Amino acid sequence: MSFKYTAIRKEDTYTLITQAQNGDRDAKEQIVEQNTGLVKNIALKFLGTGYELEDLLQIGFMGLLKAIDRFDVNFNVMFSTYAVPMILGEIKRYMRDDGKIKMSRQLKLDIRNMKQCREDYYNKKGFYPKLSELADMMGVDMPRLVEIIDAGDALSNLESLDNPDRPETPPAESHTESEDKTVDMIHLKMIIGKMTERERQIITLRYFKDMTQQQIAERIGISQVQVSRIEKRVLENIRKNMSE
Question: Whole-structure pTM over 0.70, yes or no?
């Protein structure tokens, strides 16, 4: 399940944000309305963690309001690109402060089983199974598999916060190169769902598994040139999407 959020010109957004930061409540409400779908999409990523969607949405909107107050038009980026890590951070902070993810023992076992099935399949065939194949291997239906995947992703996201070796996040006001990379990667993850299966596979392996074009080509059975062309086309589309 996903929700659309309203996309408007960057200049119009900057005008509304400036008005909102100067105390215009109507402008702030308009920004919130335009980004409601964005907050819902992010909140949905944490389903299956023991928290009610309504609670996650409320916390997400708090992050959105903080983003509105702290956004600097001199960043010269889309507001949604800046808002995503703010919303994610607010939800993660809430879950971290509330304690570890509330997850049943069975769900934890299912997550472990899912990871093991994927690795066993990959070790045998050299590529990962489709969702339908994974569901058959685990003996679960698709809705249950989606719940397990969502819970596993949320658990990984939260555990990363507790990693003592993770770099400290710079303040929201200082738009550093590392922050640019972070928000770009988060935004990239959000648009991956709109890609074809082949495009999604290549971008995921390239940017989230740190594989070279040649390694990807060997894994999925096409040439390195084809991988390069697909990657270039997808990144051009993403850059266009982020600059609208």
Answer: no
